[in-house]
Inverse folding.
């Protein structure tokens, strides 16, 4: 397998843009990535595009706007992990030698989707979902369990949102740029006890893109190629949630595999974008990704370890909570954020001297199983 | 690259089943393929699932029903070529050595989809589509051009539907089992002049699945593994439709590449499943796939060359026209049909002594470009 480099990334500004087409946002991100990679668009041989609600052959429609045709295109969906799945597809095609230059793009317009202003509805046949075990309900159980089992406090959960909203203020691509207090977060509208509005990620519109090539070709295009050290994608296992609701063994398993593949340890990660769909999620993922022992996620946020400038900056972009969560764009946007940090180009939100970064997404709760997909990528400057 | 074998295939019966869940149909096809492959389901390491309208993480939801978890899953969409795209994904993962055992499943329930009883609507931003250049309109132009340029007749187009409906009568998986006459076809309701109802593929529900492994492992499971000799997937080029509407250079280009990869010629193909979305399509694809020179597709149907027992049996399953077209299931169902013929297990519709087969799908017209995706696979016994 060849070492693969990310040579270009791009993103649209995340937010609510009900008059913007998915193809417009996708074009914006792809053109930014092409410019960043300093590459002639005609060199792109393969594209993976990801969307849930963007419509059929979305990748081809975006490429058509950009002026690329005749190449192999996969459109993939893996709920919230779709962008990361697309990234893995291109990574593998290049690592294995099928192609040399590949494009990833993730796009979503939730404000124009059938779920605009609503919760994601359960799929037909998902009885748990139809009886009300929707996303916030599911995570409210897990959050309660974490509090009961490990003594994690509401204030600790709220501090996740405080940190990520603070980071969002420093990020020009972020949907929200408001400093929030613990009190504001805990007193915001109750969504599903104990989850309040400002502990949930918002509905968002946006797109992100990346361009990959073999590391030994990367210097032809850019001076700071970023190496992809690990790529792991798995669906969840059955029995887990029955044993312990407090954390997920899927992320832990994927992380273990990713660290082995990258030849590094959790201690080596300087910057991390992880799937903070709810405040609870970030605390649980600290533990699952090995940044602390099980049950100690609350301590990490208390001690400032995951702030920008701390041991491992987590969600310096603002995360899903503040930067926004245009479903299938998120996984690619996380990679873009990590790349900017590893290049030292993250501006006011730069994690100092970041050498190794990790991107983590989860997607698609399914009745009786823990998760549809978890994807982890580790990148190195 | 390793030689890859199809060791198991399965399908649900195609038709209109508004009370059946996509997960039920998917489970039926996957279980049939697992049984056909004589394999323990726990050996499956990778799955590619395809759907347009089946909802998020459909692959995981089907696997959950079947009792498979913890593996890597891609959900892919490429309009009508989605099933073939998924097949290519699994083929490549095995050919390149990433995994040994992979599952492909394609599912669609059009009768419960948002387009039930309607035409596929244009995507937002597709001005041509919004002004009425929808699928039947698009193909009606091409059909007229083929008649004008090459002298192809309405009777020749109608004979495609006669042949494919006859074949459907012999196929237990087919949606329609009615013998039709040229007169019935030409006198059926006008959809978009000159395309009448019985020259259009129907709305369908159904699922199909396949299991692949390296050829050198295949004999552990089955006595008649079928080799995948070529896999090609491409999106269309820009300018083509401006030059000549009568046929598509995309299918021709993909076919050329596929024949080179397989080391064979059009003359070697004994059985072919191709994308007869409309009667015109089959005639044009005869030419594009090299079964005859440009403009001579009408002669092939007149001379019975593409009937079962002819030089190359085309759409012995009944094709999209009679067997039905559950969008993302089609590409996988075509592979299943080819596999049955190459094994000599196609019952009453068996192409005698079939040694080499070709499956061809096209998906997703996009404004200004010719086609979103064309996929071709060549298989050999």
């Amino acid at each position: 397998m060849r070492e693969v480099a990310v040579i270009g990334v791009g993103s649209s500004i995340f937010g609510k843009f009900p008059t913007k087409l998915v193809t417009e946002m996708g074009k914006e991100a792809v053109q930014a990535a092409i410019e960043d990679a300093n590459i002639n668009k005609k060199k792109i041989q393969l594209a993976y595009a990801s969307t849930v609600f963007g419509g059929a052959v979305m990748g081809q429609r975006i490429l058509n706007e950009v002026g690329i045709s005749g190449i192999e295109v996969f459109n993939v969906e893996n709920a919230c992990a779709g962008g990361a799945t697309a990234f893995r597809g291109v990574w593998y095609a290049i690592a294995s030698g099928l192609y040399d230059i590949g494009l990833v793009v993730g796009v979503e317009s939730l404000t124009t989707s059938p779920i605009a202003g609503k919760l994601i509805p359960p799929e037909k046949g998902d009885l748990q979902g139809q009886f009300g075990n929707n996303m916030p309900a599911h995570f409210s159980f897990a959050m309660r369990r974490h509090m009961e089992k490990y003594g994690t406090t509401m204030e600790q959960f709220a501090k996740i949102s405080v940190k990520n909203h603070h980071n969002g203020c420093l990020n020009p691509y972020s949907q929200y740029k408001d400093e929030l207090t613990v009190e504001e977060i805990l007193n915001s509208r109750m969504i599903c006890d104990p989850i309040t509005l400002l502990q949930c990620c918002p509905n968002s519109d946006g797109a992100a893109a990346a361009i990959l090539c073999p590391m030994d070709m990367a210097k032809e295009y850019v001076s700071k190629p970023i190496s992809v050290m690990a790529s792991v994608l798995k669906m969840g296992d059955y029995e887990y949630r029955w044993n312990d609701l407090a954390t997920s063994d899927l992320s832990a398993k994927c992380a273990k595999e990713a660290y082995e593949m990258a030849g590094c340890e959790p201690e080596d990660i300087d910057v991390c974008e992880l799937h903070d769909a709810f405040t609870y999620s970030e605390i649980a993922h600290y533990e699952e990704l090995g940044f602390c022992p099980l049950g100690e996620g609350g301590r990490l946020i208390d001690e400032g370890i995951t702030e920008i400038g701390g041991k491992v900056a987590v969600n310096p972009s603002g995360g899903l909570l503040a930067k926004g969560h245009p479903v299938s764009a998120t996984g690619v946007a996380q990679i873009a954020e990590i790349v900017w940090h590893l290049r030292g180009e993250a501006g006011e939100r730069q994690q100092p001297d970041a050498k190794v970064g990790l991107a983590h997404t989860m997607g698609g709760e399914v009745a009786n199983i823990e998760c549809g997909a978890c994807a982890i990528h580790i990148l190195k400057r």
